[in-house]
Design goal:
The chain is mainly beta and 187 residues long. The protein has three helices and nine strands, in the order αββββββββααβ.
């Protein structure tokens, strides 16, 4: 499956990349909003979880280039039927239309993290996908996630193409994250 997509290196690693963000086109707001499943991740946080789903909802419609987004994550433990949530707000970077700072709500209001879109696309029946990088924060290590609109995730050959393309961006930190990715269980 010869895919046509461009990935960018995370902003903290840009000097390592031969691809510049000037060749990268961010997704439209319509492409970003809605439900996403985390189908692959390097984060240990989701290893004992299943059915991890994000919902992005527009909070501030006055600024279409840099919108504020409501960020709701739902998930279940591997052997639990109870639905758990993590809720936060994503405030956009004023210099990068693909980057936001997440801040938790409720008991997580003191936790924040920076995340950015490294790539996105669409593939056949699997639909839209995005690759997200989260910088190390007080609560989490750096992470790479693959989000898809369908819980099945990307087809195996497309997954491999994305992983290879990420590794070819040329940064050892990113390469290590990509090599530690695993599939998140979805029922």
């Amino acid at each position: 499956m010869a895919a046509n997509f461009i990935l960018r290196c995370p902003s903290i690693y840009t000097s390592a990349s031969t691809l510049t963000s000037s060749t990268f086109q961010p997704p439209s707001l319509d492409q970003l909003l809605g439900h996403w499943y985390i189908t692959q991740t390097s984060s240990a946080l989701w290893r004992d979880k299943r059915n991890v789903k994000l919902t992005y909802t527009l909070l501030d419609s006055t600024n279409q280039l840099y919108p504020t987004i409501d960020d709701l994550i739902t998930y279940q433990g591997l052997s639990s039927s109870k639905l758990e949530t993590v809720h936060g707000t994503d405030t956009p970077s004023q210099t990068d239309p693909c980057a936001w700072t997440w801040r938790g709500k409720g008991w997580l209001k003191f936790v924040s993290s920076h995340w950015e879109i490294l790539g996105h696309g669409e593939v056949g029946e699997s639909g839209q996908w995005m690759v997200i990088h989260g910088q190390k924060s007080i609560a989490t290590p750096a992470v790479v996630n693959v989000y898809t609109r369908k819980r099945e995730g990307l087809p195996k050959d497309m997954r491999k193409e994305v992983e290879v393309a990420l590794e070819e961006l040329g940064d050892e930190h990113l390469r290590a994250l990509v090599r530690s990715m695993y599939s998140v269980r979805h029922d």
